[in-house]
Fold this sequence. Notes:
- The strands form four sheets. Strands 6-7-12-11 form a four-stranded mixed beta sheet, covered by helices on one side. A three-stranded mixed beta sheet has the order 1-5-4.
- By secondary structure, the chain is α+β, with helices and mostly antiparallel strands.
- The protein has helices at 12-23, 29-46, 56-72, 77-80, 102-115, 119-130, 135-142, 146-163, 167-171, 202-213, 218-225, 229-241, 267-278, 281-294, 296-300, 311-338, 403-410, 422-434, 472-489, 498-505, 509-519; strands at residues 182-188, 250-252, 258-260, 263-265, 349-355, 364-373, 376-385, 415-416, 437-440, 443-446, 449-452, 535-540.
- A hairpin with a 2-residue loop joins strand 9 (437-440) and strand 10.
- It starts with 11 loop residues before the first helix and ends with a strand.
Amino acid sequence: MKKQELLKQFDDDLLDRLFGFCYARTNDSYEAQELCSDIIFALVKAAHTDGEITNLYPFIWRVARNVYADFSNSRRRHADAFYDGDADEVLQFVAAKEQEDDSDEQLRAVYRRIAFLTRAYREVMILYYLDGLSTAEIAKLQNTSDGAVRQRLFSARQKIKSEVENMTETFNKPLALDEINYVMWATGDPHWGDPRNVCNRMFSKHVLWLCHKKPMSASEIAEELNVPTLYIEEELEILARGENGEYGLLRRMENGKYAINFILMDKEMVEKAHAAYAEHLPSICETISDYITKHKEEYLSFPYLNKKVDLNLILWQQISRIAGAFSGNVERILSEKYFSQYGKTDRPFSVYGWVDNGKHYSAGWDGVYAENICGYTKICLDNIYITRIKAHFHCGLNVSQDPQIQLALRAVCGLDISSLSETEKEHAAKAIECGYLYRDGDMLYTKILVSQMKDDNRLFEISDGLRKGYFEEDARIVAGKIASLIKGSIPEYLHGEWRFANTIANAPILDSVVEVLIDKGVLTPPENGVGAEGCWMSVMK
Length: 541
């Protein structure tokens, strides 16, 4: 028979006989496995040479005895591995694409299998077989014992032996990652470190999803995605490290596996959470509408600095707090009855989200501070943005470089148009268009709401009254459902972040309340989403 047909003769019986040969000549099973592996390696190499084998088994045992002779002489381990040259040349034994015989496939499978080993085992295999280091040299390099290295080699070889037969089927499977996306909200200071910034690729999202279902090791994920463990390990480290090394989307468990590190709801859970709130929407909106009517004069009597204000602008300023009052009651009940053992999450920035279910709730509330601008020692600007309102600005705005906001500051008590330069008049026109200013004769006045900074602590006092004595029965029902969802679907170590789960559950309510109040004539939305609505500032002289 030709030497190229040698690999076809390998079966369990031959492997067992080779191991018996080795076990009788070594000190323990680990050493026997090492010797046996070296013999197989020599036979694989022989199978990729030209020539004929007259008598199969005499040839095999002659190779085995030669390997044992080298082993007994305690040569350097790279000599035992039967290769003294450039390690890259080993890979040349892998057949070219046009060579498709069985032995080529088997050998190619062996090397591909190495790529799927976890790092500790993969590095040992590469250092031993490709770099030609002895187990003692590897132990010194990895700061471990020679016995540990031998154990890793043994385990790695066993894994290759048990799975190489299935490699053809496994590696013919295409790597096709299904589309999966998340809606990820966050709260706090993103400059501290936003872990969402390292989760943009579909590969990252799939790794995240597998670890969300249950804690998983790199090798388990590699098998699931059919991706070499090397890449999985790197991705796990990136996702666990996050952007700042302190807060990542994954956490490494004590057993070495990785698990989700933030509240992430799957489609079924988020639908149930949203439904828990939506069922009570008619009652919520009726209570809110009645409350606004009852407290109309109190809203209008707040000491804004504007020349004139109207209830519509005030309600748009307050709408997030108004619509959030029900959720606030639910949160209070959750805190008192279901999660009293947990304090608030102590971190500068936190992420939470759900698997994209095709329903988007674009809501946000951004604020910026500035000092010594336009005669004011301090100013604070806020705006909300939802489906009906576009944001005027976002966190990080530099007020000193925004002429439109500066004009709004100058026009609080009125600004004579004739005092403006031509450039300033152009900026004023844009400020009017976006809702910062309005014109009254030859004067410009600030349209967005302006109050004194000393009154900030009572700016939402009236709206927060909805949290006291309202919605109690409905809120208790919703709190019970949300608590059940959290305890049944979210890992226990994340229960301290239950508030974020409640925020996700409440996500549709703001838009829903706004639409009902618009239908009732309580609110009037800005044309095309841009206006004075939802934007305000407080100032200090």
